[in-house]
Amino acid sequence: MPLRKNHNLKETLHEMVLGVSVAVGDQFFHSLLEHLTRALDVEYAFIAEYTDREAMRVKTVAFRADGQEAEPLEFDLVGTPCERVVLDAYYCTPEGVCTLFPLDHLAMAMGVEGYAGIALTDAAGNVLGPLAVLSRRPLGDSELAETMLRIFAARASAELERTKAEQARREQLHFLQVLIDSIPHPIFYKDADRRYIGCNAALESFIGRTREEIIGKTVFDIGAEGRARICDAVDRKLLANGGVESYDSTMIHTDGSIRDIIFSKTVFGNTDGSIGGIVGTILDITERKRAEEAIQQLAYFDALTGLPNRTLLRDRVSQLLSQARREGGGFGVLHLDVDRFKGVNDSLGHACGDVLLSTVAGRIASSIRESDTVARLGSDEFVVILPGVGHEEDVVAVVRKIVEELNRPIVIQGNDIFCTASIGIAIYPTDGSSADILLKNADMAMHKAKEFGGDGYQFYSSELNHRAMERLTLETSLRRALERREFLLHYQPLLGIGSGRIVGVEALLRWDSPELGMVSPARFIPLAEETGLIVPIGEWVLRSACEQLRALHELGYTELCVSVNVSARQFRHDGFCAMVAAVLAAVGLDPRYLELELTESVIMERSETAKGILRKLKQMGVSLAIDDFGTGYSSLSYLKHFPIDRLKIDRTFVKEVTVDQDNAAIAEAIVALAHVLNLDVVAEGVETAEQLAFLAALRCDVVQGYHIARPLPPRNLLEFLEARQEDRAARPMLRSLQP
């Protein structure tokens, strides 16, 4: 019976609350509308949500008309009383709807006279859509309508938000299930009680059970007793210790055959960081197992990749040598080493490293002819033999194809691994007349390619035989350089885009050797790192940079900061933090003016130890920057969890930002990501006004590069600062800086 003014409002509300309290989802919405239409004596009520927020278009999630649940409606809010609702939070017109809103054709068609509506909002205050009641007659009691709508709006909002989230979750789960069902290898998930909570279609097909028959069961319910015990023991170990486990086992296939398989398992985490369960894959290696048994007897193939091993390689090279001596002609030998493979092994585990090597082997094999041979020597080294290829240009064509294949990202456990290689090339008969000499010379050429930074190739040349002596000479001179004061620092200014002022300088190490002349940092810094000399050299760099910055402060450049690069070996050296603190104290420099630059690889190696060191440095007040960002791991995790202040965009991305859309997009993404995380951004290698303008448009904070200034010795740095009129009073004190 309709509610009238003389009815007890409290009793009516109590009845409505009881009517909707236990309902959820669509049942709640329809129940609420039923009670509202009855209580307010109106013909229509609906709850709607946005389908297109910008276009102001909504669709009803529940609609009641003339005492019945009605088909959903979709309509535009513009020109309707609902528009007023989403703009003003609440709107009511007891009568005259069609007069006040002549463009509301839906209201006219329904014969609406009275209207009251309230906006439903999410937890953040964003409008989800309107809750409205409509009547063909003037509203009997608009105050009562407002009271009821306000009372139930919060619950309706929460339920609408919950149902949207639930729908999104269902869609996501459906997408993930479709995704893993498309994977041909069996995949399964278990909870922390080691019960199956999901699997893909490949597992159903493999064991002959449906997903419903698998979920909720343990391995003992669906596997043989002996195999189940082994499987369960591995699961217990994983749940206790985490990590990755791969092991061989057997299973009964749906066709009744016993298959040799490899289980690969790891744990997944809950949102609170605890271990939530296990995810595993099954790789059927029945055929490979049979092949491996024969291979082990022959001892000619590599077990991981299935490629020829060193023994078979030498045999094939010997055959080619015999053929070449009889018939003439030549052949090429490529020695390939995967760059930075140890970093993948250390960070992602040996199982992932094995996947990477297998993928690399496959890509090399797909890049060569059937008559060619690719062999794995061990670890991350491969050799390719190219019969009938005796000219450099022919070899280069093959090398470029291999490099192109390797440059495509390799996805391992959801990580995009970018793989490069250093390749050395020797050609018969020019570079050797025996298998040993050819392989040795190709190996020497490979190491030369690696010295140039990897991701490239080098041909063998006779001068490589002098490498060892040259390296010894360089190392001897390097050991003397510090005590003989042959090192010096140059400084490259950093320009703040917003202020147009020089905000700091980066200290860059230079070596002026009496015997060797100016030695490139690319030549001596890797050697210093390898020999450990980088530790005392790095301390000298830090002390000298701080002293010269202190001198600049005394000249009036009090806001300048100095950035100092820190190598991996320096960073890991015991007492590094204590050394930094001691230098700052001895020089008397406020730590906030010192910034230490580290590469992504430095902090990702032994990340927990690195995190502790970084926190100590931050506690001192030192700023921390990631140098060459985008060329290494580029992990969002360390940006979130490590106390980083600044990202430096690598010059390789800056170089072509005005002409290469990919580099421009990368630069834009890095700047946006940094600002979201409250990090400053420095762009390196700015060489043109166009690059500067582009970076300024991205709101990059700081730039450095030849367009601003080249690296300068201290005296020239001061002249540069004076020329920019930063402080002309400093000119008389020019001599106080080191030359």
From TrEMBL:
Residues 172-222 form the PAS domain. Residues 329-462 form the GGDEF domain. Residues 245-297 form the PAC domain. It holds the Pfam family PAS_4. InterPro entries: Biofilm_reg_signaling (IPR052155), EAL_dom (IPR001633), EAL_sf (IPR035919), GGDEF_dom (IPR000160), Nucleotide_cyclase (IPR029787), PAS (IPR000014), PAS-assoc_C (IPR000700), PAS-like_dom_sf (IPR035965). PROSITE patterns: EAL, GGDEF, PAC, PAS. Gene3D superfamilies: 3.30.70.270, EAL domain (3.20.20.450), PAS domain (3.30.450.20). Residues 471-725 form the EAL domain. PANTHER family: BIOFILM ARCHITECTURE MAINTENANCE PROTEIN MBAA, DIGUANYLATE CYCLASE DGCP. NCBIfam families: GGDEF, sensory_box. This is EAL domain-containing protein.
